[in-house]
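Section 5.1 Outputs to date
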Amino acid sequence: MVSIQENIQILGIRLRVGKSALKYIFCSFFLFQGFSAPTFVEKPKISSRDDGQILVMEFRCKSKTKPTIVWNKGDELVSETDRIKLAYQEEGNMLYHVSMEIREPTKEKDAGQFVCTVKNESGKLTATFTVKFEVPPGAPTFTRKPQILQKTVENGDAAIVFDIGFQADFQPTIIWLNPKGKKMKESSRIKFILNQEQSPNTYVAQLELKNYKAKDSGTYICNIKNEAGEANVELTLNIEG
């Protein structure tokens, strides 16, 4: 089989969603072509709908036989969820429209490389998309990977601590959401901590959860906001009981 490799560079576009600018860039497109391998008939493109609330990656290709379509993000297979829609439509004359839609894209979930591979028995083509988020000056940014710790508090009770390091040029406010998506409040079991570190504009936010039980398992969200923008991070707690 004759193999031809083709590399096409495409310019990116910049979109703005609220106070966060999103830059979507096509890095490269590779075509490994035999005589009947898939080929592009419309260059891959990226766009947004609904004021940036939906990110769309799409292209059209031609294949003499029905191809398989696979999307990956890094080393992980991308599957449909309540946020992600994968579409594969046969349009006739051996033409196919391939797309991915991401609803409410965020830096924490969607930054990185997405690769779509179209393959038939004669060859394959790939389209690589790199999604980068530009943070407004002064907005909160994370300084390290969030972590979940265990500790013993003053009275000897066991506690779980959600620990987040971040930087913000303006005074931040912190909101914690429980696995049901409801705003958390301090109580005899729940304590919020916000400490400023020695480095300028650097903070540590913590959620301390005492006497934890299996019912406390789930994904918690920390929302950090100031006048320049906001950042969110998810931490998943698994307690076996």
